[in-house]
Design a protein that fits this description.
By secondary structure, the protein is of the alpha/beta class. The chain has a 7-stranded parallel sheet with strand order 3-2-1-4-5-6-7, with helices on both faces.
Length: 242
């Protein structure tokens, strides 16, 4: 295997499905050591068994800072260091704000914003001390465009964009690269689309993309030469007009 990522250790949050699971599979093929985090232990264990011995499954609630610290600590104990983090865990709850449950809206902010911050904060000490590292956050086209049908989700992704851009500026002198991958409609569980026939139909219509398409974009970002940072990569279905 000849890959610039071979032997590097990557934490993937939200690894039990969708973009996280697809990215873990792509990075395993590149020879990465993988630390998989999500709340669904059974799915994590199954994916770790699939990907092989260079994989560690750590059930994690990313909103709880003590659990993200534990995640980073276990990664370092097992593999020596953390070279990259894909802060991917998130939830998607659209709908009318006034008609919705305020607890659901606040939960979405907590997972999509606070969870990104706790995950990143946990891995930064090691990256800063080494003067190297990659952080990629799964954002959304909703972080670039205000979408009426999803006011809280859009707010969470706008917050992510602002945080990542300013964090990148702070960390640039430390040799750490920070960026976002921002998909449009992805045909996976977060969108409630799991039927393979439906996915194939939407792909044929060019009205959605697969989790694997986003995983390929993440691989591209991580495999750039060290002097190159991709700050934002927006990836859309060809027929998504926005």
């Amino acid at each position: 295997m000849s890959s610039s990522l071979e032997g590097k250790t990557v934490i993937v949050t939200g690894a039990s499905s969708g973009i996280g699971r697809a990215t873990a599979r792509v990075l395993a093929n590149e020879g990465c050591n993988l630390v998989l985090a999500a709340r669904r232990k059974e799915r994590l264990d199954a994916l770790a068994a699939e990907l092989g011995p260079a994989t560690l499954a750590v059930p994690t609630d990313i909103v709880r800072k003590e659990e993200t610290v534990r995640l980073a600590t276990l990664a370092i104990e097992r593999f020596g260091q953390v070279d990259a983090l894909l802060a991917n865990a998130g939830i998607f709850i659209p709908g009318n704000f006034a008609a919705g449950n305020i607890d659901d809206w606040l939960k979405q902010i907590a997972i999509n914003v606070e969870g990104v911050m706790t995950s990143i904060h946990a891995v930064l000490p090691g990256m800063i001390s080494r003067g190297a590292g990659d952080i990629i956050v799964t954002s959304s086209i909703s972080g670039f465009v205000d979408i009426d049908g999803e006011p809280v989700y859009s707010a969470s992704k706008h917050a992510v964009q602002s945080f990542v851009h300013t964090l990148r500026n702070q960390l640039a002198p430390s040799g750490i690269r920070v960026g976002t991958v921002s998909p449009g409609i992805v045909l996976n569980e977060i969108w409630g689309i799991t039927d393979e026939a439906e996915i194939d139909r939407r792909i044929a219509e060019r009205s959605g993309i697969r989790s694997e398409d986003v995983a390929d974009a993440i691989l591209y970002m991580l495999s750039r030469p060290e002097h190159v940072t991709i700050r934002d990569l927006v990836i859309l279905p060809q027929n998504q007009i926005i």
